[in-house]
Amino acid sequence: MLRHIVSASQFDKKTLEKIFSTASKIKSGNYSPKTLSGKIMATLFYEPSTRTRLSFESAMLRLGGTVISTEDAKLFSSAAKGETLEDTIRIVHSYSDVIVLRHFDSGASEIASKYSRVPIINAGDGNGEHPTQALLDMFTIFSKFTTKNLTICMIGDLANGRTIHSLSYLLSLYPQIKLIFVSPKALAIPIDLKNHLKAKKIEFRETEDLNKSIKISEVVYQTRIQKERFKTKKDYLKYFGKYILDESSLKILKKSSVIMHPLPRVNEISKEVDTDPRAIYFEEAQNGVYIRMALLILLFDKPHPKPR
Ligand code: NCD
Prior knowledge:
Layout: H1 13-27, E1 40-45, H2 51-62, E2 66-69, H3 73-76, H4 85-92, E3 98-103, H5 108-115, E4 120-125, H6 131-142, E5 151-155, H7 162-171, E6 178-182, H8 191-199, E7 204-207, H9 210-215, E8 219-222, H10 233-239, H11 247-252, E9 258-260, H12 281-299
Parallel strand pairs: 1-2, 1-3, 3-4, 5-6, 5-8, 6-7, 8-9
The structure holds N-carbamoyl-L-aspartate (NCD).
N-carbamoyl-L-aspartate (NCD) is lined by residues 51-52, 124, 130, 133, 162-163, 223-224, 262-263.
């Protein structure tokens, strides 16, 4: 049974299969719109969001639940008055049955989970993790490919990109998959993730060469340079625009490959790419609602009481 969803590293293959089969059923319209009637979700977002927040809220409403929210938790919750996250959680858990939390500090969801009586779902914690994005990314990948002969290349700000971290943790459950990390050296994947991949015997490579990497990959996972994680604008601009997928990339890419992106994009995928059938980032975002519905169903799915 699912409880708090804090890190992608908490999932095993069996749980993933359950989540994905539930999401597939939902995608084909097979769910009851009253499943979560009477349940309340609190969305507590201390950082901006479009997809994650709205797809969580949509998921809850589609299942018959309701949503309470603060417009911008950093500005409009009591955090602006100096309240700690712990205290906020101790209050919000008595108003809701599940809390979806996005916070600017890595590790915030882990802390929140220690104080919460209701499940905490990490919707992004600083440059830490974004486990539910990774679930929808995996669901999207598995809807196109099997794990056999699969090379996935991840591009961009791999140091700060929390979707990259979580997706890599999930992918490490499948040792057949090969990974290529494309980034400037200063924005390489964190050392603890690297050690994790090594321990799991995952074949991976780090490089700065975009074209060579996308040429041999089935999944090209592009990401944004995480502007908000840089100390100065100058630091950010050093990397902004370094890796762009455009019409020329489409010529290099295999016919059967796909281009993914957690979105929002800034300039790292040119608009001309959008109409190419290999560009699946909008479909990927749409899968977010099915995955989040599946997670909510499984989260509230109490085991049947044992017969006496
Ligand atoms: C991502 C995030 O917030 O980490 N967005 C999302 O949730 N889809 C990616 C990003 O902001 O670059």
